[in-house]
Records
---
Amino acid sequence: MSFPGRIQERTINTSFEGLGLRAELLRAVAEQGYTQPTPIQLQAIPVILQGRDVLGAAQTGTGKTAGFALPILELLARKPAPRAVRVLILTPTRELAAQVHEDTRTYGRHVNFRSTLVYGGVGMQPQVDALRRGVDILVATPGRLLDHSRQKTVDLSHVEILVLDEADRMLDMGFIHDIRRVLALLPRERQNLLFSATFSDEIRALAGSFLRHPATVEVARRNTPAELVAQVAHAAEREVKRALLAHLVKTGDWQQVLVFCKTKHGANRLAAQLLRDGIEADAIHGNKSQNARTRALKNFKAGELRVLVATDIAARGLDIEELPHVVNYDLPHVPEDYVHRIGRTGRAGASGEAVSLVAAEERPLLAAIERLMGRKVEMRAVEGFDARAVVREPQPRPAQPNPQQRAPHRTQSHKPAPPHHRPQHPKPRTHPQAHAPKQPPQRSNPDAQPQLQVPEPVPGYRPLTAHSMPQKVPALLGGNRQRKH
Ligand code: AMP
């Protein structure tokens, strides 16, 4: 990203000492086992300590929470004041709020401050009581915070530092008006920190409206997913997705898989089906009680649940260390969500794999994602699963075969797939364009009459034989339609 005034990544200072944090904070950091600051921490901590506004381009998983929590705790400790809400941290979801709150308490365990958490879906009264006792740091979701403000159970007139965490998600979730209402309740003189994984024009407009000469800190280029994440896609129609997912989990011996579904209902159904397949699974989404969500997350983190099926909103901000597998069971309609989703894996230096199951009607969505990332996602065939069964396409003309037009996977050839399509172990890739196919994508003739190719006893799924093994799957899926919801 080329923001003016961007702060270059430091390469000389690679320790927490010397960043300006007091011994109590350094001790807490050491107790967490952190030996070196992450790049976002190296960049953000000094400028926050200078009192500057910050525009942070960082995904979850980069260590950004410590990047803002540590200097905030330092600033509070440097300037003791009567107990009042001096720091307000706004997050889009309850899970992220809980996570940020917990992290802040961890980093601040040796300094004197009070904090509390305010979010919807649970009773107001315990929050009212905690606020009445007095807090220095308040972590909140916007809606519930405004409820408290209306009931005059929170006083935001002493806020010195505002943090908007995952601001892009807040806008996606329609919180812009709530954010503006909250901003109106704060003192004009304050320090503002805005973090976002992606930078749409709306985010820039929001940032421009209240950040004053912000220092820009960043760890990833604009809209790029974590580079450590290997990305792969499998063509799979809706009817085959569940069997394919169960197959991948079992044969790959995947032990911790976060699966994204479009709808709450779909997430529930998939979790139940996976359970019937003998895979420990649970769903997490907005209709579940906070207790059920917390329990599912705890079990997942503890390794008792192999698969956690989530909607985008519920999964937002989940901090699960070194999550090895993320599956896009449904592709997101907003391409930026893909970036958020795969940011769940490959965190803090660990490599991960993001797998997308792509039905024919989702191909335009994949194309939009690829355009956003400026890279292709490799399509890979899965042995034993034949995407052809439900792919509609024209019949090849047997009389005058034209190799340029013939649908590649109808070719009955024993030749191995070209190297870029051959199944291989995922590995980090910095220049994925190098893996793009050399030839143009092969598409069906749009004028031809669609035909269902192979009737299946189990719709959409049948084992491959040597004769039916797809020779290759076009990597470029075509279609430029970009749907918004
Ligand atoms: P975050 O991006 O704040 O959600 O942090 C992602 C993960 O990185 C969390 O599990 C943190 O505990 C971890 N983390 C944060 N800072 C460091 C660090 N300096 N070294 C190692 N791990 C870290």
Note: The chain has two domains: 6-218, 229-388.
---
Amino acid sequence: MKYKRILLKLSGEALMGDLQYGIDPNMLKQYAQQIREVAELGCEVAIVIGGGNIFRGVQGVASGMDRVQGDYMGMLATVINSMALQGALEDAGVNTRLQTAIRMEQIAEPFIKRRATRHLEKGRVVIFGAGTGNPYFTTDTAAVLRAIETQADVILKGTRVDGIYTADPEKDPTAEKFETISYQEVYDKNLKVMDMTAFTLSEENNLPIIVFDMNTDGNLKKLILGDNVGTLVTNK
Ligand code: UDP
């Protein structure tokens, strides 16, 4: 196993699958299956999931809502996705814990770093909900923050695209994929990996990022076993 402890970042939109809104149960099942495979190998898995399939702060602002109010609604949206994923994982026979950055004791533990680390050591998959608990941030930043706090070896950003390209491969057929790339090259080439707050936090703490396609069955396991999947961002 190449990575012993990972933080997996999934976007909220990915959960929509072919739907226009909300959560596609087939996507949940597919993700739960892949996560189970790596947990069974003994890999310690922490997860942060976005909320864009349900609500985004900027959506609220566009309809005249206060930004902070909208952001808290976005954070609650991530809790809904986290609970959905937790349910799917438990159905697949995986032990899980949900910890949230905003207290909601009936449904989740509050985020406590030492406790989260203990769960991981015991082989439980830990899901971190409600982002950072602060408005004006994103779940990418929450993912990097929790990865550093829990000393994950790497942050895995699951997307629809199988890595970082010279241009958007869905728009430009000549776009080429990077196998590895440095943080500096990402800045120089103005590539979009994560939002800047998340990206610089990752760089400052030497946390490698792998962008990969989570929608292809078995990819997560391949990655954990050291196969060349996706694009790796490091200090080089
Ligand atoms: N959000 C926030 N603080 C955080 C994380 C999330 O305010 O630490 C809010 C923000 O409004 C964001 C929404 O939650 O638009 C959903 O999160 P995100 O957009 O990161 O989810 P994704 O786009 O990955 O689905």
Note: The chain is about 35% helix and 20% strand.
---
Amino acid sequence: TPGIRPLVAGNWKMNGASASLNELRAIGHGFLGGLDSETEALVCVPATLLARAAEVLSSTPVRPGGQDCHAEQNGAHTGDISGEMLKDAGATHVIVGHSERRADHGETDAMVHAKAEAAWRAGLVAIICIGETRDQRDDGETLTVLSRQIAGSIPAAATPSNAIVAYEPVWAIGTGLTPTALDVAKAHTHIRAELAATIGSEAAGKMRILYGGSVKPSNAVELLGVDNVDGALVGGASLKAADFLGIAEAY
Ligand code: PEP
């Protein structure tokens, strides 16, 4: 989208240990070494790696992010991690409302809304994920589902600098399946129009809308070239520096 700086964001999910920091180092160096500086890059690592990831990436343009945060700052929530903790460990961004969190942990739109606000309270940029399931797509409900998720998950205080929307069709995540360029265009155009209703058309016009779901170097040029696609959220292919850098080269 004209005037929007593209973002390529990795999501390592529940993958990666100390040895993976080498891959992260290679990603950082790749962005140092000549990739279009117009493209912003981020890798959302497991919380266990965050502080070391921040160190590895500190002299590179690539930023470290978290994958989820609790809505509260601290308290009796064993096993949970707050936005403030992620920020303290070096994160600049956090993913909220990923479909795996929605499915595995029963996260509702209202919970995702609260997590986005928690991210802002901690000084993090929230990457808010939405997307339809296979059944919803087959029933022709894709755009209705997106409207509902936008209304429920994206706070009215969202701005182009504190929030990023990621459109991730659930059936395309980790499956190797992708929507057609036309379907991606329809979804992203719809998302931008719906955002305008929540946050106003000027802010909506500048908000980054990422596509996520089986992005690879081989399909990145096509998917990232679609109107209103302002970058990618990349799962599996972000675990290998060569693949992640190959996707970023689509710009
Ligand atoms: C994701 O989980 O955000 C994702 C897009 O995964 P993958 O690229 O592996 O489909």
Note: The mean pLDDT is 96.
---
Amino acid sequence: MLTVYSDDHRLHFGQSELVDGKLQPCFEMPSRADTVLARVRQQEIGEVIEPKDFGLEPILRVHDGAYVEFLKGAWDRWAAEGHSCDMLPSTFPARRLRRDGPIPTALHGQLGHYCFDTEAPITAGTWQAVYSSAQVALTAQDHIRQGANTAFALCRPPGHHAGSDFMGGYCFFNNAAIVTQAFLDQGAKRVAILDVDYHHGNGTQELFYDRADVLFASIHGDPLVEYPYYLGHADERGEGAGTGFNHNYPLPHGTGWAGWSAALDDACRKIASYAPDALVISLGVDTYKDDPISKFKLDSPDYLVMGQRIAALGLPTLFIMEGGYAVEAIGVNAVNVLQGYEG
Ligand code: Q9C
Ligand code: ZN
């Protein structure tokens, strides 16, 4: 299996996120991608290539232009205001504040407008890193367009919490959504996205919620008790033309392979009957038993079986790296999915 990877991910290295009332070191750190890349090389699963540059156009098919401009210019504006530390928002438009009113001109007001939490710092190199992460995903997608059955986009930063015009949850550009739209723009009739990250893929759900040409299935910690809290319930089935094409599997804290794989089997049945032209996997391995921010109990051999069950669908499959914070283990776990898939 081809892996696409760029060293540019290192340019995004947040100092801290706000956790339990304290600024703490970011869980989403550069060594995550290093660990996965080292395992890809050690297991010799295939060639590793640099991304090509597909420009901003495929990103703008998914993300709002003003949001993209904000991300591109935010750090320079912040530095011009005399700051050198990371940018984190602290004010957000809740209900009955005007979230769709005039966008503030002040940088801090824009930050709260375009972000939904205090865990995704913008740093000096964030723009280049998130741009390259999207190009990593698009290069892997292009490999499948050219006829390959599968590819692995070793994206960092991850993407599935990012919506059309907001960042959050360590995510800035929604890499899985960008490649899904690319498949459709190149002639695919239907694309399925299976999100196996521990957290609900709220951004991806939002982007395709009213559409029948994308089926979204997500297996995740129940939002009643788990981040991102405000989306991901089982009754969210899509709207308008998209009704019936969104499937959420919220599972309780403590879920192990038995409960998790039952949800996977149901999601795979729905994907099979949808008969998509391509399958995009939002591959988070923060479902691991020792993940520091998560509460599922999957073990390393389970990821091999996960890959086997995804392979049984017999679809062209693009793996997009998302979360996973037990840094020593995420290389083994992510690559186990790929090796299970390849059989
Ligand atoms: N106490 C992804 O996995 N909340 N994002 C962490 C820690 C944010 C996860 C709270 C989790 C975001 C791509
Ligand atoms: Zn996650």
Note: The first strand starts at residue 2 and ends at 4.
